[in-house]
Amino acid sequence: MTSVRVWDAGVRSFHWLLAVAVSAGALTGFVLGRLTLAWHLVAGVVVLVAVAWRVVWGVLGPTYARFASFTYPPAVVLAHLRALRGTGRRRHLGHNPLGALMVFAFLLVLAAIVLTGVLALGGLLKQGPLRAFLSYDAGRSWLRLHNWLAIALLAMIAAHLAGVAFESWRGRENLVAAMLTGDKPVLTEAEATAPVHARAGLAWTIVLALLAAGTAAVAALAALPGRGVPPAALDPVFAEQCGSCHLAFPPSLAPASTWNAILADLQHHFTTQAPLSDEQVAHLRAWLDANSAEHWDTLPSHILRRPAADGSLRITDTPGWRRRHARIPAAVFAAKPVYRRSACEACHADAASGRFAPQAIAIPPAQD
Ligand code: HEC
Ligand code: HEC
Questions:
Q1: Per-residue pLDDT tens for 73-103?
Q2: Buried (b) or exposed (e) across 283-306, using 16+ Cβ within 10 A?
Q3: Is-contact 313 261, C-beta < 8 A?
Q4: Atom 27 (ligand 2): residue with closest C-alpha?
Q5: Residue 337: is the preceding peptide bond cis (ω within 30°)?
Q6: Nearest C-alpha to atom 40 of ligand 2 is from which residue?
């Protein structure tokens, strides 16, 4: 029995690389949470490059890699569906009509997941190429769609695995092995189509050119200032007076009403007193009024701008802060080296800038 190379090295590498990247994306996105955002983004970039490569390979690759080899007219798809219930079957060396539809659906949904992910990243975290264009609220909507598409993708993967198992059983051939070795046995003379040769050099040139242009465009866009992210320079009086005992909390972390109330009673400043001259207080009031959370569109400014219901002026008593830190054991805050909830900089390397990016979060190991 002769066999034929159905899945070339390119298609096989693409398939398994995609399986790894999508698994990593699902694991970091659904299970591990925002502390693994950096890996989630790496997975997204790998998926994007892989999909772009597959589209080019679908035009320039060898016989069975080409989209043209598995673009079936609707009548053929329907006939295939009908045949599924009967015993008559026509074997497809490449993708069968149903599998082919799945390939196109996968490529579309994967592209949509990456796109909505970039939209969410730009709006919510003011990161990535779209940070200059999207509001926080828009980012939230895109994140919702991103999540739904990811769930749809999981369902499609389940259907794909079921399809592979069913076809392997029905056709008595190991389709998983075929995706590993690339070869399938040829049963009848008629099955072997005349081979089309890949234009690998041209394909790689196009993909590398796309990659270079894409990287340059992303870098240029990501260098634009984020929308609703004013320059974060601290007022010198604020930096000196309000940064002498603790982190000079970026003004975006509380609404104007909270800042005003804090300034109004510096004699009873939480557990101490913070003596500032009337002049300094007036100066800070004007600066904080102009730079409070309401003037920002960042994630911290949005989740922290609603004050605590009991009138507490603490950032760490706001419902937004409580919710985001609910899963951290109280002991972590009480022990060395954190000591206080308000020591944002102990866990957020970028606290002074007000960014609070997930990639900059790390809970320091406890010391005794
Ligand atoms: C003399 C030292 C001192 C100075 C000066 C000072 N603070 Fe404080 N601040 C404290 C202490 C102590 C706390 C309570 C820390 C804790 O319990 O976590 C605190 C807490 C805070 C908190 C609440 C943190 C939380 O738990 O959410 C804010 C907001 C704050 N200070 C803002 C300011 C501002 C604005 C200024 C400048 C006008 C200022 N502080 C100046 C000592 C100071
Ligand atoms: C003991 C370490 C620790 C301290 C101290 C701490 N945080 Fe956090 N913070 C975390 C962790 C961990 C997360 C991520 C929680 C999660 O979603 O899994 C987080 C999440 C956040 C987020 C959400 C980030 C995002 O993109 O979802 C904000 C905003 C934030 N913290 C602000 C603050 C501020 C402001 C302070 C100080 C007043 C502070 N944190 C103090 C550990 C800390």
A1: 998 888 888 887 776 667 788 888 888 999 9
A2: bbeebbeebbbeebbbbbbbbbbe
A3: yes
A4: 358
A5: yes
A6: 344
